[in-house]
Amino acid sequence: MTQLRFLLNDTEVALTEVGASDTLLDHLRIARRLTGTKEGCAEGDCGACTVLAGRMTAEGLIYEPVNACIRLLASCHATHIVTIEHLRGPDGGLHPVQAAMVAHHGSQCGFCTPGIVMALYALWMTSPAADATAIETALQGNICRCTGYEPIIKAALAAHAVGGQLQDALAIEREAVSARLAAMRQGRVTLARGADRALIPADNDDLAQLLLDEPQATLVAGATDVGLWVTKFMRDISPAIFIGHLMKDIRVEDGTLHLGAGVTYAEAAPLIARHIPAAHDYWLRIGGWQVRSMGTIGANIANGSPIGDTPPLLIALGARIVLRRGAERRELPLEEFFLGYGKQDRQPGEFVEEVQIPTRPGARIAAYKVSKRRDSDITSAACGICIETEGETIRSARIAFGGMAATPKRARAAEAALEGQPFAEATFQAAAEALAEDFQPLTDMRASAEYRALVAKNLIRRFWLEQSEPGLPVRLRHDGEIAA
Q1: Can you give the pTM of this predicted structure?
Q2: Can you give the residue range of the structural domain that contains 189?
Q3: Which of 134, 141, 424, 463 lies deepest, with the highest CB count within 10 Å?
Q4: Cross-referenced PANTHER family, in alphabetical order (predicted)?
Q5: CATH of the domain at 113
Q6: Are residues 161 and 15 in the same domain?
Q7: Mean pLDDT score across all residues of the chain
């Protein structure tokens, strides 16, 4: 196929001239004049550009909030893109979310309002009885400088109070939309605008062949990083192979989560909550809801960033990855994948196909993230810890940090200070001091070397406090009160 096909509100779109770097936001605002979707940051941070993307899954059609500013147009193939202009109530007037925002004065300057409404609309569809905590989580990726959020949260609570009492247009049209989207996903799609090329493989095998034919191509999954290459650095990513619809397999086998590399953070979140509950809060600090709906675990690993959110936790758990080149596959521990800054153990034409995460039942597990802003911010330092004990003795210890070295890295000296020792404060104090042998962090715009070194020590101490006194208050709840 040489056409990009998707639904935009109630209209079917078919495009032949599409480049790899074309963004959904530009198409909406410039080509379609749907200017309710705003450009604020152009990096997926502020949420003013939020729209919904409907896609077919094994469970049927689902709608998720996404950032149109970094969502590349080619990745919209066989999806249903819904903008603020498509919202309406049963009588054709305001949708309950919109009406509640008016009634509770949830909009002031109005610039961010469409994106906020779309995020709340996504929550309204998926969680009719959402409470204030769920609403705050849904709004992690939406920045509003006017309201202080209180009237927005009141509006969302009011909208959810009537959410289960009516069916809106997307609910009524779901069966028809599902059929239309299913008919669009047929074979490989080849697109071009001049020399700017975008390729959409039909399946995993087609991807493997495409990468053999085009080993230097840019792989684009959720574009939460690649999108910034386009909008901020004006990089040429052509030819680009769009893979966000592939490698979605999920299974749990012998205490291990097997996740296809294309599984998004949002798709994995229920599994993390169920099988590794100690990491659930950490998982919800990966970007905002829009980023978690787009970004994939495999791409977060393959990107090789020293401040990627998932590697410290996954390394601490002993995760392994499966790499594929053509029909050949190989498996290796995750920590061995990272060779140096910007360098991974991946050959031309090879890609991450699967991530295997041991759930470690009975282990003491924790994951921590330190950033300038609590929600939807880039990591200054991150830590994953997995301790297994026999009685009061530490049998094994795995500790990994991000933001402390050129790659995500295990703290081998700290681990050695723990293994075979009593589970006691002095033991963890010794491990904290041993971190000086493991890391010599750098100073950058996110944190100084001294701050990172001190934070790393304190995270080891925090782990001891949390594990030794489970009821000890060590963090703030969403309402500002101290919680365990």
Answers
A1: 0.94
A2: 4-85+172-242
A3: 141
A4: XANTHINE DEHYDROGENASE
A5: 1.10.150.120
A6: no
A7: 94
